[in-house]
From TrEMBL:
InterPro entries: DSBA-like_thioredoxin_dom (IPR001853), DsbA/DsbL (IPR023205), Thiol_disulfide_DsbA (IPR050824), Thioredoxin-like_sf (IPR036249), Thioredoxin_domain (IPR013766). It comes from Rheinheimera baltica. It is found in: Periplasm. Residues 10-162 form the Thioredoxin domain. This is Thiol:disulfide interchange protein. Gene3D superfamilies: Glutaredoxin.
């Protein structure tokens, strides 16, 4: 009887991560795509405003971003390989999003761009149409124009392109949306249940963040 109670106590004392280990499996729920982790904890979504799946996922992405542990940043990296628009126009959209995020309007502008393309089915014909949409969100035209040409925004957009090319070449990035935790773990989207996808995704992200914390 004593051994029984000891066993029950040990089971109760097991950390929650032990149960997470049983719930999430490498190769089924996530893939290891790099040896090193990013300097700071992060979740990065590779996406395109022209991607229907990304449009459907956007509300989930914004909700998940609000549920991350303190100090963990949710980043979005726009890709330019969708054939619905030229790479140049897609680069403009990437920079427009970066400007909006810098000004604290990232989520609102992202939703507006998605709606323009997918809900209203009125894709952008040129850079001026993108500018007009962004300015509707209480962003000053002069501020927008200056930021679009700034070294920081252009550098961030170039970094998106650099990462896209490297991940595409290594065949890690074959479609969007794609989520990567700490630059090391690629989440396998099809492993997530449709009925409770957001909750399961949050659990998986937290598990991967904790996995790095334990090994760092």
């Amino acid at each position: 009887m004593k051994k029984f109670f000891v066993a029950c106590f040990l089971m109760a004392a097991l950390p929650l991560t032990a149960f997470a280990d049983a719930k999430f499996e490498e190769g089924k729920h996530y893939e290891v795509i790099a040896e090193q982790v990013t300097p700071k904890a992060e979740v990065k979504e590779y996406f395109s405003f022209y991607c229907g799946g990304c449009n459907a996922f956007e509300p989930v992405a914004q909700s998940v971003a609000q549920k991350l542990p303190e100090g963990v940043e949710f980043k979005k990296s726009h890709v330019d390989f969708i054939r619905a628009a030229s790479p140049e126009l897609q680069n403009t959209l990437a920079r427009a999003y970066l400007v909006a995020k810098k000004l604290g309007k990232g989520d609102k502008v992202a939703s507006a761009i998605f709606n323009q393309i997918h809900r209203y089915r009125a894709p952008f014909a040129n850079e001026q149409e993108i500018r007009s949409l962004v300015l509707l969100h209480d962003i000053d035209g002069e501020t927008y124009d200056s930021a679009m040409k700034s070294f920081s925004v252009r550098g961030a957009a170039n970094q998106m392109k650099k990462e896209q090319d490297a991940l595409s070449e290594s065949r890690v990035l074959s479609g969007v949306p794609m989520l990567v935790v700490n630059g090391k773990y690629k989440i396998i989207n099809k492993s997530l249940g449709q009925s409770n996808m957001e909750a399961e995704l949050v659990d998986l992200i937290n598990y991967l963040l904790e996995k790095d914390a334990k090994t760092s």
